[in-house]
Amino acid sequence: QNELPGSGFEPLSSERVFHLCVCSPLDNILTSVIFNKVAEIAPNIHLVFKSALNQNTEHQLRYQETEFVIGYEEFRRPEFACVPLFKDEMVLVASRNHPRISGPMMEADIYREEHAAVALDRYASFSLPWYDTADKQARIAYQGNAMVSVLNVVSQTQMVAIAPRWLADEFADKLALQILPLPLKVNSRTCYLSWHEAAGRDKGHQWMEELLVDICKR
Q: pTM of the entire structure?
């Protein structure tokens, strides 16, 4: 797949296919922005998106079956390049008519409530950092495949959930959600762009890397 070293890359005429994994829930905000921006400046380039990592992701990055991953997971292996893009604030979300919640809570209060979360057995589950003990996991009453389903369930029950602020803001009015500060140690997460270093020598790959950093940093 790699072009010969030193050969040029012309975005305007290139018909190259790029495979990107934009991990949920970030796919809600980034997929359309990336897709539209690339279509505008390089109309013949084809993008293929998926929204979930799996155990095979490192293999896919190594063999460039997936060329870039955008997500909250940091690839710490030496052969992977990993660039921080931005930091997301995390918040607690509950229904506006929740009988016990009307303002900021303490950590102990949060884990007295029943929780909705992204399924913990999903590879690199978004919710996993907040359920690192058996007691906390025992508070989970619903495990869904995507954060949007989690917010939907929270809006119609007395469950609570932990979500990125931008996603909670997007659905707050539509689903009548209240958004509260998260008084936990992990109350923000960094989004990273990752790729395999062997791919980084390729001109087209370098172009896409710079473009993704530019799009996502805004």
A: 0.89
